[in-house]
Write a structure and sequence with these properties.
four-stranded antiparallel beta sheet; disordered N terminus; 21% strand; six-stranded mixed beta sheet; Rossmann fold
Length: 296
Amino acid sequence: MAATQERPTADRPERPRPGLPGPESVIEFRGVSKVYESGDIGVENATFHIDRGEFVFLVGSTGSGKSTLMRLLIKEHEPSAGTIRVSGRDLADIDRQRVPHYRRNIGVVFQDFKLLPNRTVYDNVAYALQVTGHSRKEIRAKVPDILRLTGLSTKLHNYPDQLSGGEQQRVSVARAFVNHPPLVLADEPTGNLDPETSIGIMQLLYRINKAGTTVLVATHDAHMVDRMRRRVIEMQSGRIIRDEASGLYRPSEQSTGEFTAMLRGDDGMPLQRRGKTARQRTAEELFDEAFGDDDR
């Protein structure tokens, strides 16, 4: 990412994205609410759209509604009100028997990987092709390609328990993308990973997006969101409270107390005297190398 890139300031904030969907919309929520049997509100009156080729971060504290929104998209939950469309199709028109077919045609990356423990890396990825009707010839051609893309070409005969957490998540990403779906949903894909490994996973999602796939990432990774500066949708108590085309994890406004704490640092030492650790520096250098070709 270029160091000279101009960024929004407190005096010139990013405008929220318009609410009207266009013909290029891959995801469209219109007045969507989800109320659980307990009475708890998961999502309240959500209206937004995501266009083809966008990379969007979904942020918010625990319990804000991010996971509910993602589960609505994969039809794990049904909305209490409103309309959800994916690639122009109303999800209400997909009956229960067709839900597995629908899910196979979008890519989903989970925080806990959800790999088949008794299958090798190769077979975990090949399974995503088998269930969508690909021939053995197609599988033999596609799986090695996606494993090379995700840096797993030397691990194809390994089982999940023989892999690190980062490698298991790479398998999950490979499985999600091997069908080249129009949409990839990633729910906390770096939540269980260290900062350096997280950068590698996010770089994979970035490459997938650059190939034309729409990517929606639900995350708590503030550092990654702030450095990548993609569109940010923020949720709070089930409602969408912010939608910025190139946003930060949190708005830039700070109280006097927060500003004073930032200047002093956690241990009371002025920031100019607080050095970064070697791990922090390495992570930042890796980030700049991974995303330095971004020309947006």
